[in-house]
Design goal:
Layout lengths: L9 H13 L14 H36 L4 H4 L1 H9 L3 H15 L19 H37 L3 H8 L4 H26 L1 H4 L1 H6 L5 H10 L3 H29 L1 H5 L1
Keywords: Membrane, Transmembrane, Transmembrane helix, Transport
Subcellular location: Cell membrane
Membrane topology: Multi-pass membrane protein
Length: about 270
Amino acid sequence: MAFGFTDAPLYQQYFTYVLHLFQGDLGISVAYFPANVTEVIATGLGWTLLLSGIAVIIAFSLGTALGVVATWRRGGWLDSVMPPVLIFLGAFPYFWLAMVLLYALGFVFGIFPLRHAYSDTLAPALSGEFIFSVVQHMVLPVAAIVIASLGGWMLSMRSTMVGVLAEDYITMANAKGLSQKRIMFHYAARNALLPNITGFGMALGFVLSGSLLTEIVFSYPGQGYLLIQAVRNQDYPLMQGIFLTITLAVLAANLLVDVLYVWLDPRTRAR
């Protein structure tokens, strides 16, 4: 055996790999030799979770809120203008919006930094200057992801809300004289939110891979950037480790969705 490669039979290699997998040993990275794959993935995992996690939460929260308000005030400007505009912007891929934002706000006007996750002159530390630099470098990539996905969340919530508003319990709530704000958020929005929870869970699951091209555009040191480096250097152990991480994230997201359903939908607790 040399550099992690062996001439052993395939079945033996497979069982050896599974055994090492349960021990947390994903092998040695070719591109970052002699570093372990687990160590390499750990360097980018935090940045990807921070970037994509914040982007998904903002897009989901803002899109859901816009969908609720647009449905409640059907026919208004928010219901008539915002959906087509957001769908038009959502038709563009993340990386295209990222390049436009990078060129306009980073290169032409110089408002935001062009690359990396923080200033090259700073060392990672729990200081106000470093945190401000991280937030400043995060604005453009987060904005690209949010703009591209906002329309889908809004339309999904709007279509669900339209069906919920026709239910008998909404009519009963109006007949009881409850305030419109309470009916909208406590009766209509909460029940309309349930189908969107599934989409939110899947979005969290793919958060490790969804920002792949966005990270490349901004040279952001996350999982996507590591995956591209692994492909370029034919680093198969690192690619396997990243794909495994994404798979585990999807499974964890599905578990989170099941837990949220029990909390949000009383019918599941009664069964």
